[in-house]
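Incident log, structure service

09:12 report received: a user says their structure output differs between two submissions of the same chain.
09:20 pulled the input from the user's history:
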Amino acid sequence: MNQYGKPSTEKANADEGQNGLPPLPLVCSLDRDVVTDDAAFRDLAVDWNHLLGRSPGGSVFMRWEWHYTWWQVYAGRHDHLHIITWRRNGELVGLLPLYRQACGIVPGRTCLRLTGTGELAIDEVATEYGDLLVDSGLQAEVCSLASEYLLQFNGWIHIEMPCLLEGSLLHQVLVAGGRSHLRVRSAGLRYRLPLLEDEAGYLDSLGASRAKRIRRSQKAAARDGGIAVTTITSAACFDTAFRELAELNHERQAHKRRKSVFASARFQAFHRQLSRQLFAEGAVDIVRFHLGARLLAVLYCYYDEVTCHYYQSGFTRKDSNRYMPLTLAHLMEMQRNREADRKYYDFMRGEAPTYKEEFNCETSAMVNVSVYRWRWQLSLAIANRRLRAGVGKCLRALGSG
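09:34 re-ran on a clean worker, output below:
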């Protein structure tokens, strides 16, 4: 396969396996292609989502709609699509959605990133759980081919993959092939709650003190008229609900002296476009929680077959000690998802200390993975991070003084 994306055929052989992955069977023959233009990206929609349903690394954040919308909103003029596909007899069996981003270290060279990542922090959409999509029967074959291809460094000098689940297919591919030029850093933890119990049993698992406080807030809300739940009933309702969510999120972030991501025009454009595509499939909702005429909390959630992904929220600070609005909103959304037969309530990524720890979640490590073409790049990246950490520590010390 050359850098211009012309198709070629990769044939496995018994000698492959030098990257730590299982050797490939002789019968495997996959055609690899690289998608480099928007029209071909658009044409991938059906095959992409069909493969997603057969892939162990699939989640709502790996849907075609998420990545195509991100590319339409966030791609810079120096960014170039580089979506790698593998097919067997014409059927899509492997996919890694990448793009090449201009790299400032060496002119004319680029950094290879997952689509959905690499935007500025003020615009960040938090595309988490990125992974290699693979037909479940061809994991070893596609993973070995992906590792071999990525480490060719054909037109890029740096690979940057943020917010991967430790142990995911893509994480394994990069670790197996990266060797001494690999850098793995903690990206926090995924906080996920199995929805195995009814609410009463779940509250008991939180401990007597927290359960008592939550039940007291539930009783207070019930005495004051009860909390009503409103969901989006049409795509047209999305704008109103999104605006209310943004207002409450801004209130919460302003109290912490932080800027809300909802202030970003790109962030808003991304979600408004994406919601129109996903609403009809029941894959997105903005759930509002009212006490009488008062809006207490809003949860922005994405859904796949077995999981509710809690993505963003906003809640009022007024009477927060009495009603615990965010906690009660989460409990009510958990119950909605139990009734929908989903198995997990995913609080997504966080870094301790975080309020997510109070929900008795199971946790999984998340990592940022970088692979460099040359050893000196890795040394430079480590030195730069240490320098920034030192400067930050000095600034915090000056501020506290």
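09:41 both user submissions now match this output. Likely a transient worker issue. Closing.
09:42 reviewer note: The two ends are 58 Å apart (CA to CA). DSSP finds twelve helices and 16 strands in the chain.
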